[in-house]
Amino acid sequence: MPDPIHQFNINKIVDINLFGYDISFTNSSLFMVMAVIAISAFLTMSMSGRSLVPTRLQSLAEIAYEFIANMVRDAIGPEGMKFFPFVFTVFMFIFTLNMLGMFPWLGFTVTSHLIVTAGLAIMVFTLVIVVGLAKNGLGFFKLFVPSGVPIAVMPLVVAIEVISFLSRPVSHSMRLFANMLAGHIALKVFGGFIVMLLGAGFGYSLIGILPFTMAVGLTVLELLVAFLQAYVFTMLTCMYLNDALHPGH
Amino acid sequence: MPDPTDAPGPEPDHDGGGLSREDRAGFEKRLSSLDDKLNKTVTPREKARKEAASSVRVSGRGMAYGMRMATELVAAVIVGGLIGYGLDYFLGTKPWLFLVFFILGFAAGIVNLMRAYKRMQADIDAQTGGYLGEDMPDSDDD
Q1: What is the pLDDT of residue B61?
Q2: What ranges do the domains of chain B cover?
């Protein structure tokens, strides 16, 4: 049976060593670069015409813009549009990476590596803290002190709130990572079943239809998950930024 | 099914001319009872369709929601445990702070869950207008 984990292997393409740190250009880096190029090409090409009546490509770009813009306005409010470039970048980056991972054969899912999603989540987390402190000064710490709590249990509540706050980047990154990892392993396992059954003789290869239908269904589900997880990640980014701008719920 | 409103009413012969007073009353009555009957069959069907549509939309996200709840809880427990472990390591109070923060982490996880639940509920309400379909019939016990 083909190893379902094999698809997540990191292979060095160009070996680079800088001051004792291994910063080699890997297949993961390659897919990130591909995603950036794809997004840039898509947005520049689609908006080059800038016609009043949009072409197909242009309306795709407009849909993407409006989707994120509405999300930002809903979650943060009009002043949140300052963060639109960041949020839009995060969404497009994750979504494109997830989608690139859906290519059979050559696909490599960058977001199925915890280190990548953790990097993104920590970036959001740091941004939230910096913006929160810059906007509200010490008032940002009101986030940890819910109103209307009796003094006696206050230390307990504050400790819980702090842990809850610190757990955000963990759950934020773990969710995207776990979803992509689990989905792709499931796909690979069912794919492996098909191959095994095909190799086992005629009678068995007929049974191979069953995992095949499952694999087709899973592929559709994975496409949905690829979008949904990018959406959830972005949505939570908006919510955390909202907390930074308006602490004290 | 025996429908009391629809049984009486003289079955008239509609001869082309103007309807007499009681004919008209009977006619109205039949009309309204037909309306009732129509509602009885159409509305559940409409409801079922709406229900199916919304349940597809909601359950499509169900897996994402479930996954989210799980990570929300686990993440807080992990963070709490790590904080306790770190503090123990530096203060040399081996198991105690770990245990305390582990439990605090669990509490934080529950807080996370409740917040996530509130947001999800708001999401779902916004999507479906608060209508999630009829309750399932209660088949067993109580």
Answers
A1: 61
A2: 15-60, 62-131
